[in-house]
Fold each of these.
Amino acid sequence: MKQSKVVFAVCILVLLVASGCKKEATAPASQAQPAADAVQADNSLSGKVVETMNSGGYTYVCLENSGKKTWVAVPETKVKVGQMVTCQPGGEMKNFTSKTLKRTFESIIFSGGIS
């Protein structure tokens, strides 16, 4: 379990460093990508909790906003299905496998917590 926390911390650190090193290309406004429904203009994640589980000191929350579901991992906290929450912005990982949950998430946002 301690090793899982270390691996998670290293993954977050790598994401933070990598996101700071990316060179952003500017596309014309007509080619700009629309933001995901669950990601607001202030980069917070919000929506209705449709599924949640705790494992390894983290809470995994599936948020639904305008019919789009987004998985977010936050430090362990109490949330209930049906609750409306807003999470702090975070880094996205594609095809993340949680060994403790024995589950792979197609896409998951690692957030600092619920605002």
Amino acid sequence: MTESGTYDYLLIGGGIVGVSTALQLKQRYPAARILLFEKESTVACHQTGHNSGVIHAGVYYEPGSLKARFCREGAQATVDFCKRHKIPFQRCGKLLVATSPIEVERMAALADRCRRNQIEVEPLSAMQLKSIEPNITGQGALLVPATGIVDYRQVAAALQEDFIALGGQVRFSSTVTALREDVATIEVCCGSSRFRGRFLISCAGLMADRILTLLGIEADFRIVPFRGEYYQLPQSCNDIVSHLIYPIPDPDLPFLGVHLTRMIDGSVTVGPNAVVGWMREGYGRVNISLRDSWENLSYPGFWKVMHTHLRSGLHEMKNSLWKPGYLQQVRKYCPQLGLNDLRPYPAGIRAQAVKADGSLVHDFLFAESPRSLHVCNAPSPAATSALPIGTYICDKVEGRQR
């Protein structure tokens, strides 16, 4: 059925960043007609609904960066939102565990970064670590009490409900097939349906570069998907840890390593690793899309990333295919776990913006046209940071209209 309509603001993407932005735009402009497009049948179907549910404190991020600022503000904003909406959450704290002398050295740099980012941190000796986590082994650790856990699907659903309650509209099962912009308006096409608005905001995540292409904006990056594969521990292991357990990350690598995560439902997951994805929305064990694979293989930046991180990439691929290798990553700090403890669990996909020179975009990235604003890269911790990101986007939109 052909539909049409005229709106003040149109938004693309029903992930947590998209619904946060839609809600805050409606709160800022109560009389505005606002329509959000989501190609799935509900919100939070992709990155938002396939992450580990951590409310990050902001340990790793460069002081002064948008990531550091958004994470610090977002952690508290997320907790406040959950309290108002009676969404279950816990501030269980995170332990970053050092298992080698070089990781002990790296602890000092991480502790300093925490302090510069105004995050409470407590260095622990091996004995202190063992006293609070008897099942975890390490030469030392950093305790970050502010880290928490939540189900971000519930958070996104509550944001959507608030948006609709204020008069906002959401159009599900609506894949954007074309975009047209003129001097006065911008048009969004979903098949034969046409919708016009004064301004468009795209929070398209895994499809961010393709939305830019629809509008004829030249992108200086491409989204390369990385699969994060998880396992879940059996119910008998639900009490194996009381904190989130992370390794000390290698600063030369872009991912944090395999960790033990207490989930808000009481279960414990192991992961994720990081392997190249050959399907942008492939969450099963074997997922290949010819289009997505070709876009990887035909992009110079992809090959440069692979060359730069060849050794770690091969290591991740081996562990993806060989379960004992994956197990070794977690046994470094939790040696009592065995192969039978690693049970199947859905994978996640991370939308990583990669420049043509092979550099990974580590901070937030935006693109613009006269009547549109595009969130091109919203890296972890985007879920934690969704509320301040939404505020930032609304501020940018307001500034464009002055």
Amino acid sequence: MEIFGIAGWSGSGKTTLLVKLIPELTGRGIRVSTIKHAHHGFDFDKPGKDSWEHRNAGATEVMITSDNRWALMRELRDEPEPNLAECAAHMSDVDLLLVEGFKHESHNKLEVSRQATGKALLQPDDPHIVAVVCDAALPHINVPVLHIDDITAVADYILDYTGLDAKAGAA
């Protein structure tokens, strides 16, 4: 399983890029899963639901299953936040695991940048950023720059970089 990241500041368009990129990649026969890192507490369970009640009562893990999907929630309680490798170990094997966030981890990644955010690039300080996806030309950087609206080029770059281009070509 290849792990490849999409990093950038909040509001840069990481999720928008991923939502466009996933169907482009799966349409080429690539099996894709994702991991999203949140910088704050989050909850997708609701008070009053049985699974919420189980967690609230102290369960460390709660799995919800149906005939369409299953989800496993784990309360960290006093445990440290897991790193990317620990999270990835829980994922089923696919061709490509796309990681949104985890910008300070040492996996290869694209940086998503938009001029409107006014944020400086992460790329000069992160050797694991192998290309930048942006809405403007960036002639001063030493990695490839791809236009944020050219999803085909971004997919091509990721597949070529990870070596999955041969699998996509065979699909």
Amino acid sequence: MTTEEFKKHAHEFVDWMAEYFESVEEYPVKAQVKPGEIYRKLQAEAPGEPESMEQIFDDFKQYILPGMTHWQSPNFFAYFPANNSYPSVLAEMLTATLGAQCMIWETSPAAAELEERVMNWLKQMLGLPGSFEGVIQDTASTASLTALITARERASGMQINKRGFSANEKYRIYCSMETHSSIEKAVKIAGLGSNSLVKIAVDKDFRMNPGLLEKAIIEDIDNGYNPLSVIATLGTTGTTAIDPLEKIADISSRYKLWLHVDAALAGSALLLPEFRWMIKGIEGVDSFVFNPHKWLFTNFDCSAYFVKDPGLLIKSLEILPEYLKTKSRGKVNDYRDWGIPLGRRFRALKLWFVIRNFGVSGLQEKLRSHLRLTAKLQKMINESGDFEIMAPVPLNTICFRYHPAGEDNPELLDSLNEKLLQDINDSGKAYFTHTRLNGSFVIRFVIGQTNVSEKHVINAWNLIQGTIKRFN
């Protein structure tokens, strides 16, 4: 491809991208294909000869697009937001063009120094302690794994990195029953073993119970175990429950445990001063992660990880082969020592673009608009009669179910709500997912897509009610 051909196709692609953003809500939100359908339509063998970009792009539109779920649709209310925005997409285009490998300062000084500056911006924007230092990871899953490895090495005096595990560590890690599954995965990958993970029961609001946490720690000490770490969650995956951080931090401090906070979704809400109550006790936290790629309008992947002791983090993860030795080492941040992979993308650029183009006030207004829509929907559900909210709504997620008057058979209620969810998702008009709370099947309505408006929320609620009418 020549430069002129590249320019021609690039302009065509940008035109298509702009049209996609304008029309994305017209697509079925959830891909309306069956397993294997896309695979069977694709060429069985790689082409031996070059193919034109026109043909490749036509095949993208014909074969790939119908198999995509449209996370950027304002009718997407499933899982969690995974948002982009115009400034973020523009920055990603520049990042792809530069094609930089940003593993150390020497390989792209601007990338390292921009990351340092942007992470300091975020720290101030969220109200985190000034003593924290930050780094951009790919996901909260990786950040949590990094936290557990650092906790492990602190407890072992860096010996597990050297000699591996013996049979005598008997470490214990504590989280709530509602903690994200990535914590259990991290425990396995870090070599701690899934049996070392103790899941603490939650209270009626699905928050970790601090009293039961301390009881479990004491019992483990009495039985010869070594408590290592506590994972607190701000905004659980199921209901966005907020664990009582101050009490958990006090317990973690008294027993000298590494306290890691997973605020993957909810961390963005800390831009709003009225939500800083969530981090009361943050001074007792060792590490903290949230995902701008969830609710801060920044393309996946971009996870902001903060630590109280970056020296300990670096000591736990650094390896220095000859080819990575530089004269700048020790004078700058070589971020490949701050995480699992050596290779690093230039993620700071899109975050810089987003913060500057929205401004803090613009980001705050977006978040507040989502929260206002959530409160409006919560009121409509409460006034509906045949629907009930199944969990507190501290942020932008409503867990609810259809519960017709006089029907209390749990199996039938589960079946009705499962059918309701499936019918709506099959329609392509909106997309929801579910969870189980106290054994009951409930539907999750998450309001956080970048461009969602009152119109989209009301249309989705009307769709739910209209679907129920067809059941009767």
